[in-house]
Automatic annotation (TrEMBL):
This is Glyoxalase. InterPro entries: Anthracycline_SecMetBiosynth, Glyas_Bleomycin-R_OHBP_Dase, Glyas_Fos-R_dOase_dom, VOC_core. It comes from the Bacteria. Residues 4-121 form the VOC domain. PANTHER family: GLYOXALASE-RELATED (PTHR33993).
Length: 128
């Protein structure tokens, strides 16, 4: 559904440590995201014991991006959402639009400096 939290991501330069921590804390499991792996990215999908739960992933950042645990909201149009973030006094930190390997997405900050994500699923029509 548009404008709802639909994904979370944990980024770390120690993916094995994060897997161990969250696995032991919550019983989560992790599997390689094959699409990301084909493009040289170490991204792992989170699995839950006994259910789907909110969808999420673990990003092995290799130190190229600060560690974070962040939620992402599905939007009809990532570009428009970024423009709206800026018009409301927020900041676009990183934007990837026209991405042939995954969804259009952006990391943004709210007016308090909190990082979160917005994304448009592949093939989603603007304004849907």
């Amino acid at each position: 559904m548009i404008n709802t939290v639909a994904w979370f991501e944990i980024a770390t330069d120690d993916p094995q440590g994060a897997e161990k921590f969250y696995g032991e804390l919550f019983g989560w499991s992790f599997a390689t995201d094959e699409g990301s792996a084909k493009n040289g990215m170490d991204y792992r999908l989170v699995g839950y014991p006994g259910g789907d739960g909110p969808r999420g992933g673990l990003y092995a950042s290799g130190g190229a991006f600060p560690g974070h645990a962040v939620f992402s909201v599905v939007v009809a149009d990532t570009e428009a959402a970024c423009a709206r973030v800026e018009s409301l006094g927020g900041e676009v930190v990183r934007k990837v639009v026209g991405n042939e390997h995954g969804p259009d997405f952006a990391y943004v900050r709210d007016v308090s400096g909190n990082l979160f994500g917005v994304f448009t699923p592949p093939g989603a029509a603007a304004g849907a």
